Amino acid sequence: MEIDGLDRTGVNGNSPEEKILDIMHQMTHQKIVAKQKWGAIPMTTRNIEQIESIVSSSKKIHSPQVKKQLIRIIAKWENGNFSEADEDHNYIWKLQKGTLGKARGLLSKEEELLFIEEWFIEGKAEEDNK
Question: What is the pTM of this model?
Answer without folding.
Answer: 0.88
